[in-house]
From TrEMBL:
GO terms for molecular function: DNA binding. InterPro entries: Tscrpt_reg_PadR_N (IPR005149), WH-like_DNA-bd_sf (IPR036388), WH_DNA-bd_sf (IPR036390). Signal peptide: none annotated. It comes from the Bacteria. Residues 16-91 form the Transcription regulator PadR N-terminal domain. The lineage of its organism: Bacteria, Bacillati, Actinomycetota, Actinomycetes, Mycobacteriales. Keywords: DNA-binding. This is DNA-binding transcriptional regulator, PadR family.
């Protein structure tokens, strides 16, 4: 049982419990709120993962069915609410996730550790390409926030705001490093680098 509870201590569990701590909801309503708040930018979501998570949390006694709801001609939907153990679990997850830094081994940082395997020209080109993709993501998110966040309190959009700040900082850093490489940043001997390709 302890192992099963450990498996529930994920960002997706935190999403479901937070939504239900606000008020009882059916899964579709949760999906709409997740989209409006850009939670998918920071929590991995797949097709049925929300429904799977709700099922696991219900079996663990952290959420329970609170009834059903029907809107117009849509089918009846099961409404869920958080339980007291669910509220305690949410509080514990939030405290741990907010206060304990964890090294998550992102692949970009791993690639940076091996950047000297490339020629300086290639390294600068690839860093600029990443910066350009981040600029596109930053602009897309800014546009969506302008369109969909009207009326939502800032507190429910802090993760999107944080990600936008990280993107802006990374873009500035990438641009600076690419410039430094172009300006002659010291590089390991040629024997450690690939042949220069356009």
């Amino acid at each position: 049982m302890a192992r099963e509870l450990r498996a529930l201590q994920t960002p997706l569990t935190m999403v479901v419990l937070t939504m239900l701590a606000e008020r009882p909801r059916h899964p579709y309503e949760m999906k709409v709120a997740i989209r409006e708040r850009h939670v998918e930018d920071v929590v991995k979501m797949r097709g049925g993962s929300l429904y799977d998570a709700i099922g696991r949390l219900e079996r663990a006694g952290l959420v329970r069915q609170a009834g059903t709801a029907r809107e117009g001609s849509r089918p009846e939907r099961t409404v869920y609410e958080i339980t007291e153990p669910g509220r305690q679990t949410l509080d514990e997850l939030l405290e741990r996730f907010l206060t304990e830094p964890v090294n998550e081994y992102p692949r970009f940082v791993a690639a940076l550790a091996h950047l000297p395997a490339l020629t300086p020209h290639t390294a600068a080109r690839l860093l600029r390409r990443r910066a350009e993709r981040l600029r596109e993501d930053h602009a897309d998110t800014a546009r969506m926030l302008d369109e969909h966040s009207t009326g939502l309190p800032r507190a429910v959009l802090l993760e999107a705001e944080y990600v936008q700040h990280l993107r802006a900082a990374e873009i500035a850093w990438l641009d600076g490093v690419a410039r430094d490489i172009d300006d002659g940043m010291p590089w390991p001997d040629d024997e450690f680098t690939e042949s220069d390709e356009e």
